[in-house]
Amino acid sequence: MFYGAMKLSVGGALKLAFRPWVEGLENVPAEGPAILASNHLSFSDSFFLPAMLDRKVTFIAKQEYFTTPGVKGKLTAAFFKGVGQLPVDRSGGRGASEAAIKSGIEVLERGELFGIYPEGTRSPDGRLYRGKPGGLARVALATGAPVIPVAMIDTEKIQPPGKVVPKLMRPGIRIGKPLDFSRYHGMDNDRFILRSVTDEVMYEIMKLSGQEYVDIYATVAKRQIAEAEAARKREAKSGDDEGDGKSGDKAGT
C-alpha cells in the first residue's frame, strides 16, 4: 500500500513536471519475473523508469541512503523504501556483491521485476561503459528470468553535477525486447559465459541508447577523469607559482 501511494504521488509529479516519453512498454511482461538492465546516466533513473511502468520495480540502492541520521536522512530512507529500493552495503567488496545478487534473486523468485545497472555506477560523461558480469549475468542465469534491455535518454541533462534546481525537459526511455539466456542455465560460475551474457546485454543497450561505447569500466573512467583533473590543477597552480616568482624577481631588479 505504501509503495502504491508513494508511486502515485512521486510518479504522478514526475510525469506532470517532466512529461517523459517511453517506447517499448509492451516488452515488459504483465506478470512474472524479469530483469530490467539499464544504462545509468543520472540519480533520477531509478525514479523515471518505475514511474512509467504499471508494475513495481526493485532496484539496489546504497546503504547510506537508508542510514543517514537526522530528519532529512529519515525522509530520504522513507522515500527510497517507498519506491521499492533495497539497501545494500556496497563498500564490502565481494561480500557486498554477493548480498546484491542474493537480493536480486529473492525479488525474482517472488515473481517481481528487478532493476539493475550493469555498469555498476553512473556514467561520468554520458557514454556507455563496459558492463560488470558479476551481478546481472549471475542473477539471470541463477533464476532463468528474461533480461530486458533499457535505455534512459537525456536524464543526465536534467540535473548535471553542481546544479541544485533541475531543468524541466523531457527525458526518454526505450525498452527493448526480452533476451533469453536459458541456454546457459547452470553455468553461472563460468566467467566466460558471464562475460558473454553481459556483453550481449550491453550491446542491446547501446543500440537502444545510441551512446558511444567505451570498453573499460565506468569506475576506471571516473578515476582517470579525477586524476586528469588533479593533474590539471597541479599544473595550473605550478604556473601561478612560477608567475608570482617572476613578478617578484622583476620587482626586485
Topology:
Blueprint: H1 2-18, E1 21-23, E2 34-38, H2 45-51, E3 57-62, H3 64-67, H4 70-82, E4 85-88, H5 94-109, E5 113-116, E6 128-129, H6 136-143, E7 147-153, E8 172-175, H7 191-209, E9 213-214, H8 218-252
Parallel strand pairs: 1-8, 2-5, 2-7, 3-4, 3-5, 6-9
Antiparallel strand pairs: 7-8
Helix pairs in contact: 1-2, 5-6
Structure notes:
The chain is an alpha/beta fold and 253 residues long. The chain has one domain (1-215): Glycerol-3-phosphate (1)-acyltransferase (3-Layer(aba) Sandwich). It has eight helices and nine strands. The strands form two sheets. Strands 1-8-7-2-5-3-4 form a seven-stranded mixed β-sheet, sandwiched between helices. Helix 1 (2-18) crosses helix 2 (45-51) and helix 5 runs parallel beside helix 6. The termini are far apart. The model has no long low-confidence stretch (mean pLDDT 86).
User: In percent, how helical is the residue content?
Assistant: 40-55%
* Cα-based radius of gyration, to the nearest Å: 21 Å
Question: What is the tally of helical segments?
Answer: 8
SSE topology string: HEEHEHHEHEEHEEHEH
Shape: globular
Number of domains: 1
CATH superfamily: Glycerol-3-phosphate (1)-acyltransferase
Condensed summary:
One of its GO terms (cellular component) is plasma membrane. With 253 residues, the protein is an alpha/beta fold.
